[in-house]
Amino acid sequence: MKQLSDSLLIQSYHKALELNLSDEFINQITQEIRNRSIQHLLDKYVTHVG
C-alpha cells in the first residue's frame, strides 16, 4: 500500500466499499489512510466525484 499515491489509495477505498470487499481489506486501507493523515481527502474525493 505504501507504493500507492494518496489519490489512488482514496479511490481504492471507495471502490472497495462499492464492491463490498472484505472488512479486513477495507480496514487495511483505512489504517493506511490514517497513517498518512489523509482522512480529509475522503470527503474531497466524494465531493469531487459525486
List the helices and strands and how they pair.
Blueprint: H1 6-18, H2 23-35, H3 40-49
Helix pairs in contact: 1-2
InterPro entries: Sda, Sda_sf
Protein name: Sporulation histidine kinase inhibitor Sda
Keywords: Protein kinase inhibitor
What would your notes on this structure say?
The chain has 50 residues and is mainly alpha-helical. It has one domain (6-49). The chain is built from 3 helices and no strands. Helix 1 packs antiparallel against helix 2 (23-35). It is globular and about 25 Å long. The protein starts with 5 loop residues before the first helix and ends with a helix. The model has no long low-confidence stretch (mean pLDDT 88).
Summarize this, please?
By secondary structure, this protein is an all-alpha fold. It has one domain (6-49). It has helices at 6-18, 23-35, 40-49.
Keywords:
single chain, 50 residues, mainly alpha, 3 helices, 0% strand, globular, protein kinase inhibitor, protein kinase inhibitor activity, Sda, Sda_sf
Task: Describe the sheet with the most strands.
Answer: none
Mean pLDDT: 88
Radius of gyration, CA atoms, in whole angstroms: 10 Å
Q: How far is the N terminus from the C terminus? A: 25 Å
Number of strands: 0
Helical stretch tally: 3
- Please trace the helix and strand order, writing H or E for each element: HHH
Percentage of β-strand residues: under 5%
Report helical residue fraction: over 70%
Look at the helices and sheets and give the structural class. Answer: mainly alpha
Mass-distribution shape:
globular
Domain module count? 1
Q: Which runs of at least 5 residues are low in confidence (pLDDT < 50)?
A: none
